[in-house]
Amino acid sequence: MKNQWDERFGISEYVYGEGPNKFIEEYATYLKNDQTIVAFAEGEGRNAVYLARLGHDITAWDYSEVGLEKTMTLAAKSNVAIKTERKDLITDPVPEEAFDGGIMVFGHFAKEHQKSVIDKLIKTVKPGGTIMLEVYSEQQINYKTGGPKTADLLYNPANVLEWLQEYKVIHFFYGEKERSEGTGHTGIGHVIQAIVKKEMF
Question: Which 8-state DSSP code applies to residue 153?
Fold first, then answer.
């Protein structure tokens, strides 16, 4: 039986488009020294392919086999190689300190799992590496421009900052951003962004 993400991605079009998330595109220079990068909840592969085109060695993890298949198709279209693996980021373990950097864009998880998923993202990055994430804030429920329809799958900025506070936070943003990403994210939305160096104070 297919999961909800297999159902969502099971169309020929790319639900969130083929181009990268604007936050990843705008701040990709922060990853310039990170050769191996893992992409959490990568969906159809748009960010992974973009970073691979910049010369990074990318591994994409997602719960949807359909999404990972579309990732491979997009990678082939862009003449880049990407490693993919189906992974349930709630229950599956992740290797410790295996990657130079890690990203997560709009990883939708219930509140009870959000901290553990972000902890895994940090855990799998080597000391000194870079973590980048953009997620929808709880305010997104009022915008109706994409994202979950329930607040339980949205993020609280104070919580996110608390989960990251022992590391070097070099960028943190909470507010409105315009996103034009396929049919899935269109218009002004309310997001939380963070860029963190895995360096403890």
Answer: G
Single-letter amino acid, residue 47: N
What pLDDT shows up at residue 1?
Answer: 38
Residue appearing with tokens 């993020």: 155
Q: Which two tokens stand for residue 62?
A: 């997602």
- The residues, any chain, with a CB within 8 Å of residue 158's CB and separated by 6 or more, are none
Amino acid 106: pLDDT: 94
**Is-contact 147 140, C-beta < 8 A?**
yes
Is domain 4-200 annotated with CATH 3.40.50.150? yes
Q: What is the pTM (predicted TM-score) of this model? A: 0.93
Tell me the pLDDT band of 118, cut-offs 50, 70 and 90. very high
Q: What is the enclosing helix (H) or strand (E) of 50?
A: helix 46-53
Q: How far apart are CA 142 and CA 174, in angstroms?
A: 15
* DSSP assigned state of 168: E
| CA pair distance 181, 93, nearest whole angstrom | 30
Question: Domain extents for the chain?
Answer: 4-200
